[in-house]
Structure formats: structure tokens, C-alpha cells
């Protein structure tokens, strides 16, 4: 029996102070994004293309349109924003900087509010990472910035037959160390920029190239609270190079990266409004 006051597990309800905090987060973010030349877009709740951005299609909430074509609720905004601008609005706008404030939905009934930005045609990830940092700083939240590179785990899997991407998804440190490769051991424990110079001398050239990209992003960042995590693997279909997470303890407040859609290189980020709202409300009590 479902009682009248019940809401589905994973759905969001905001009222009173929490609702005010959520609105303030969105106001601060929209003001900063607007000042940086981003225009707002609100994408449809239903989409034909969510499978392009969600690694596990079981997370999609699926339905059918009037012609019985499969559709799903929006489970990710990034690819839909780029696709709609490029394919549907391309003749009407040349603008390449867009932001959105909207929820995503995943199976079975999980709702997640996000603030995101996409800089289409841009390769410099620091251009949007600085904006995400500015938004959180304005809200008096100073998380740890973790910089990674999706190419590193993929290259290591190509180099070592003993490794698979699952080892990186589950952070199988023992398996990495058991290979008894000096530079790989140092890579496992790499955290700080000052550790890189020694490592760059001994790693294979292909790994060196990707580590340099991480170093450059860390040097360009406006935050001083930065760690490097080259062995971290993000389970996203579209990140193809450097990416970052802004975290505090076990909570992720923002995530962003470089990706390619329809042969267009872009960078973007998403701020997780619900997690951020919960922290601010808790800090104010």
C-alpha cells in the first residue's frame, strides 16, 4: 500500500530553507556563467539518444513515442546539448557556450539536479574548470580538485595483457603493483605535481604525453587544492582525455572533462546541485 504522503525512492523534494538554498545555488551559477558568455538552454526531458552518453543502458528509464520508437528520460545532458545545438539549432545560432539547470533521471526512480556548462569547439579544459571552481568558491565550498586522464588506463591496458579496464574501475592496486614495473609503481602512487618531473623521465613516451596534459591542467587551475589521480577511470562514454572531479570526503560536487561529439572537440562540467545543497544546509545549521 502506497500512502498519500509517499514519494518514489530517489525523487527530490525541496521546501523551506533547502528550497531557498537550491535557488541561491542556481542564481549564483547562472550569474557567473552569464558573465562568462554562456547562454542558457533547457533540453527536452525525453530523448532518442541517451544511449550515446550512458555506459550502462540499464540505468535508462525507457518508453516509446507515438510511432513506437524507443525513447528514454534524460539521464545525461551533455551529449543532448551538443547534438541539439549542432544538428537542430545550427542554422539559427553560432554561439558555442551554453549552460543548463535541469534534472536528470535514472532507473528506477532516481532524480538528480544539475548545473552544467558546455564549451563547444574548445579544447582547453581549464577554461571551464576555472568557472566551476569560481561557482563553488562563491558558495564558500572549497573541495579537493582531482585531475585524471582517461587515456592513461586505456594505454596501460594496451601495454599489459594482465590488465583490464575493470581493474581500474575497481582500483585493483595489488594487481598493478604485482607487475613489478618501477615506473608503474610510481604512477600508482602519483598524487602531486612535484612528483611528476622524476616520473616523466622514466615512463613510456605515450604515457608521458598524457601525464603532461594533466600537469598543464593542474598548473592552469585556479585552485591550489589539487591532486593527480592517473589510475582513476570514469565510467562515462564520452570523456576521451583529461577530466576532473571536485570532491570532499566521499562526496562529488562537480565533474568535467574533454570529449568529442560528432567530430567536435568540446569541454564541459556538471555541478551536482543536490549534494551541494545538502552541504550548504548542513553547514548553516
From TrEMBL:
Name recorded for this polypeptide: ATP phosphoribosyltransferase
GO molecular function: glycosyltransferase activity; histidine-tRNA ligase activity
Superkingdom, taxonomy of origin: Bacteria
GO CC terms in record: cytoplasm
InterPro entries, per database record: aa-tRNA-synth_II/BPL/LPL (IPR045864), HisRS-like_core (IPR041715), HisRS/HisZ (IPR004516)
Lineage of the organism: Bacteria, Pseudomonadati, Campylobacterota, Epsilonproteobacteria, Campylobacterales
Biological process per Gene Ontology, one example term: histidyl-tRNA aminoacylation
Keywords of the record: Glycosyltransferase, Transferase
Source species of the chain: Sulfurimonas hongkongensis
Keyword Amino-acid biosynthesis among record annotations: no
Sequence ranges assigned to domain Class II Histidinyl-tRNA synthetase (HisRS)-like catalytic core in this UniProt record: 18-276
Pfam families with a match to the protein in the record: tRNA-synt_His
Amino acid at each position: 500500500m502506497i500512502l498519500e504522503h509517499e514519494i518514489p525512492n530517489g525523487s527530490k523534494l525541496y521546501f523551506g530553507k533547502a528550497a531557498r538554498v537550491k535557488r541561491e545555488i542556481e542564481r549564483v551559477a547562472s550569474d557567473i556563467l552569464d558573465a562568462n558568455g554562456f547562454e542558457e538552454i533547457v533540453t527536452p526531458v525525453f530523448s532518442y539518444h541517451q544511449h550515446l552518453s550512458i555506459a550502462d543502458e540499464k540505468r535508462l528509464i525507457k518508453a516509446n513515442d507515438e510511432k513506437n520508437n524507443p525513447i528514454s528520460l534524460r539521464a545525461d545532458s551533455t551529449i543532448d546539448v551538443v547534438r541539439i545545438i549542432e544538428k537542430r539549432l545550427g542554422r539559427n545560432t553560432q554561439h558555442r557556450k551554453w549552460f543548463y539547470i535541469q534534472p536528470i533521471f535514472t532507473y528506477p526512480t532516481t532524480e538528480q539536479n544539475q548545473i552544467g556548462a558546455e564549451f563547444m569547439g574548445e579544447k582547453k579544459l581549464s577554461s571551464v574548470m576555472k568557472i566551476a571552481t569560481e561557482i563553488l568558491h562563491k558558495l564558500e565550498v572549497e573541495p579537493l580538485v582531482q585531475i585524471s586522464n582517461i587515456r592513461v588506463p586505456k594505454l596501460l591496458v594496451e601495454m599489459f595483457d594482465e590488465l583490464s579496464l575493470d581493474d581500474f574501475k575497481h582500483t585493483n592496486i595489488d594487481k598493478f603493483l604485482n607487475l613489478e614495473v618501477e615506473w608503474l609503481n610510481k604512477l600508482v602512487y602519483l598524487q602531486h605535481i612535484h612528483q611528476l618531473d622524476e616520473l616523466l623521465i622514466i615512463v613510456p613516451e605515450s604515457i608521458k604525453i598524457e601525464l603532461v596534459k594533466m600537469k598543464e591542467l593542474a598548473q592552469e587551475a585556479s585552485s591550489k587544492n589539487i591532486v593527480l589521480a592517473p589510475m582513476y577511470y570514469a565510467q562515462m562514454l564520452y570523456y576521451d582525455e583529461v577530466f576532473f572531479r571536485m570532491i570532499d570526503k566521499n562526496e562529488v560536487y562537480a565533474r568535467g572533462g574533454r570529449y568529442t561529439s560528432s567530430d567536435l572537440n568540446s569541454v564541459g562540467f556538471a555541478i551536482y546541485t543536490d549534494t551541494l545543497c545538502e552541504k550548504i544546509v548542513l553547514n548553516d545549521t
